[in-house]
Amino acid sequence: MDKKALHVITFSLAMVGALNWGLVGLFDFNLVEALLGSGSGLARLVYIVVGVSAVYVFATHKNDCKICGEMMAKK
């Protein structure tokens, strides 16, 4: 898998996680648990994959984001 595809996938998964947390905070509604069942192995796997994706995005953001990369180059 090339770097751009990996970035798109991991960023998308991180956004899904962020949206799910927004739903939990605003409406006390967990979309992952609603779709996959509370405490199910599949729901747990989704949380793990989303978490790993967020860590990857955080670790590589400076290199992948054109705006952040330009700001870092100016310093």
TrEMBL record:
Keywords recorded for this protein, A-Z: Membrane, Transmembrane, Transmembrane helix
Name under which the protein is recorded: DUF378 domain-containing protein
InterPro entries: DUF378 (IPR007211)
UniProt-listed PANTHER family: MEMBRANE PROTEIN, MEMBRANE PROTEIN-RELATED
Domain of life: Bacteria
Pfam family, one: DUF378
Species for this entry: Candidatus Amesbacteria bacterium RIFCSPLOWO2_01_FULL_48_25
Transmembrane spans: 6-29, 41-59
